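quick one, 57 residues, struct below
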Amino acid sequence: MRLLTPLMLLLASPAIAESFDRPIPQAQSATAEIWFAVASLALVAALFLVHRLVMRK
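---
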């Protein structure tokens, strides 16, 4: 264990580490936007139905 500690510190030095490349976000496709709109409308409809059920009681 005593031999591994200096070796690990040497291998983990910043000089050996590679630089971080930020991922470039990709644009959404038209299909993804349509499905997001459908899901958003379904969520609003479900919230409205829950609102109606709660207001009845």
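The radius of gyration is 27 Å.
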